[in-house]
């Protein structure tokens, strides 16, 4: 497995985020079993501060299960997760204060309007109403949701729902964003806006870990990448290290293997 290089984006001097040498996110021996299925098998992962980390793997590899354990949504059978050196399961409130989470498949309070949902997220984080109102308006505008601010989230499209969940994860400007499939169902214009937001967030000292199936996007956006299959980490490091002279998609296929080989369906030929 390739080594993880040092972060290329040091935190701003004097920043409270600057705990030298402490990873933004550290997973040690994370394990989860669902009945007979070992979904995550002793996962060790370090996400350096200031990195833009892509977490990739085939369907069913264990990405969502790992990120859910890392963010305090799903209790691990074994192992530990730390955010900025704080154990997520021993000190959940302190750890959760430091992160913003876009979870996959978690039901939102969809009888609220988009604006109410983002406002609720900000107030839950203990922010004052004025700041919440300002940031909520900014997020809705930047994400192209201003016209849908008063629409119930239940009536949002899949892409709009993803964007309002992302806004709710960002409103308190956490030092770590954990985003499960943030670009899924999002149109290309919004995807570009989100990429821009995340790029400047990372450039200012924030850390992002996102899961994605789009290798091209991970290769272009991310500084680091971890490849998981069958609950195990196959490779991790800078994108350069992991792709090892190939494009990331080819390297990914080389690492995880071609599902079903080069088989064809003889009956699907017209
Ligand atoms: N609540 C659950 N009960 C039973 N099995 C589960 C549960 N959640 C996940 N699994 C199983 O654990 C494995 C890992 O699932 P997980 O959702 O973490 O994969 P993933 O990498 O996020 O997949 P995808 O890319 O398709 O979203 C899969 O085999 C899945 O069927």
List strands and helices in order, with pairings.
Elements lengths: L24 E10 L2 E11 L4 E5 L6 H8 L7 E6 L2 E2 L4 H6 L1 E4 L11 H11 L4 H14 L15 H13 L5 E5 L7 H16 L3 E5 L3 H7 L2 E6 L2 E7 H5 L4 H9 L14
Parallel strand pairs: 3-8, 3-9, 6-7, 7-8
Antiparallel strand pairs: 1-2, 1-4, 4-5, 9-10
Helix pairs in contact: 3-4, 3-5
The chain binds adenosine-5'-triphosphate (ATP).
Adenosine-5'-triphosphate binds next to strand 2 and helix 1.
Pfam families: ABC_tran
Subcellular location: Cell membrane
InterPro entries: AAA+_ATPase, ABC_transporter-like_ATP-bd, ABC_transporter_ATP-binding, P-loop_NTPase
Name the features.
270 residues, alpha/beta, six-stranded mixed sheet, 10 strands, disordered N terminus, ABC_transporter_ATP-binding
Fold and architecture overview:
This protein has 2 domains: 31-98 and 176-256, Rossmann fold (3-Layer(aba) Sandwich), CATH 3.40.50; 108-173, no CATH class. The protein is 33% helix and 23% strand. The protein has helices spanning 63-70, 92-97, 114-124, 129-142, 158-170, 188-203, 215-221, 239-243, 248-256; strands at residues 25-34, 37-47, 52-56, 78-83, 86-87, 99-102, 176-180, 207-211, 224-229, 232-238. Strands 6-7-8-3-9-10 form a 6-stranded mixed beta sheet, sandwiched between helices. The chain is globular and about 55 Å long. Adenosine-5'-triphosphate (ATP) binds at residues 34, 37, 39, 57, 59-65. Adenosine-5'-triphosphate is lined by residues 34, 37, 39, 57, 59-65.
């Amino acid at each position: 497995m390739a080594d993880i290089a040092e972060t290329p984006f040091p935190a701003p001097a004097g920043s409270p985020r600057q705990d030298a040498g402490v990873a933004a996110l550290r997973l040690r021996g994370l394990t989860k079993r669902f009945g007979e299925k070992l979904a995550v098998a002793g996962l060790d992962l370090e996400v350096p501060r200031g990195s833009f980390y892509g977490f990739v793997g085939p369907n069913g590899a264990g990405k969502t299960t790992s990120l859910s354990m890392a963010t305090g949504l799903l209790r691990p059978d074994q192992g530990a997760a730390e955010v900025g050196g704080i154990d997520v399961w021993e000190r959940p409130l302190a750890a959760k204060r430091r992160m913003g989470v876009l979870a996959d498949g978690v039901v939102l309070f969809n009888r609220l309007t988009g604006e109410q949902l983002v406002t609720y997220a900000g107030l839950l984080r203990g922010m004052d109403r004025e700041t919440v109102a300002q940031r909520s308006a900014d997020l809705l505008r930047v994400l192209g949701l201003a016209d849908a601010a008063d629409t119930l989230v239940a009536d949002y499209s899949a892409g709009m729902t993803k964007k309002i969940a992302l806004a709710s994860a960002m409103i308190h400007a956490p030092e770590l964003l954990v985003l499960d499939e943030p670009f899924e169902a999002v149109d290309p214009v919004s995807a570009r806006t989100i990429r821009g937001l995340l790029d400047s967030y990372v450039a200012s000292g924030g850390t992002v870990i996102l899961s994605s199936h789009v290798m091209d996007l991970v290769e272009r956006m991310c500084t680091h990448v971890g490849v998981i299959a069958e609950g195990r980490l196959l490779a991790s490091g800078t994108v350069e290290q992991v792709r090892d002279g190939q494009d990331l998609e080819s390297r990914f296929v080389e690492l995880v293997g071609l599902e079903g080989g080069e088989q064809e369906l003889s009956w699907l030929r017209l």
